[in-house]
Write a structure and sequence with these properties.
about 100 residues; alpha+beta; 3-stranded antiparallel β-sheet; rod-shaped; membrane; transmembrane helix; transmembrane
């Protein structure tokens, strides 16, 4: 009888541990990875150009004026900046 009692207690403790871990660490709700390259997270689009060379020129212009910028990898090429840099980026691109 003692063996059955110990087995029940061990399995009960393991079940309680499993439920506790599931509750605190088991909800993995990360977004699906962006496999097609169209999701740029927090970056905001400030320009769209047809060629890679034009995108590179705009990114360099923004960087020379102190605005952190990048471009997309696929055509049409998007020039993107951080949200707090959008007003400055638009001023730079207008000039």
């Amino acid at each position: 009888m003692t063996g059955i009692y110990q087995t029940v207690v061990v399995f009960g403790a393991l079940a309680l541990l499993a439920l506790t871990l599931r509750y605190f660490a088991g909800n993995d709700r990360r977004p699906v990875p962006d496999l097609d390259g169209t999701d740029f997270g927090l970056l905001s689009e400030v320009a769209v150009v047809p060629t890679e060379e034009a995108a590179k020129v705009l990114v360099q212009k923004l960087k020379k004026n102190g605005v952190r910028a990048t471009r997309s990898r696929n055509a049409p090429y998007q020039v993107m900046v951080w949200p707090q840099d959008v007003p400055n980026a638009r001023l730079v691109l207008k000039s």
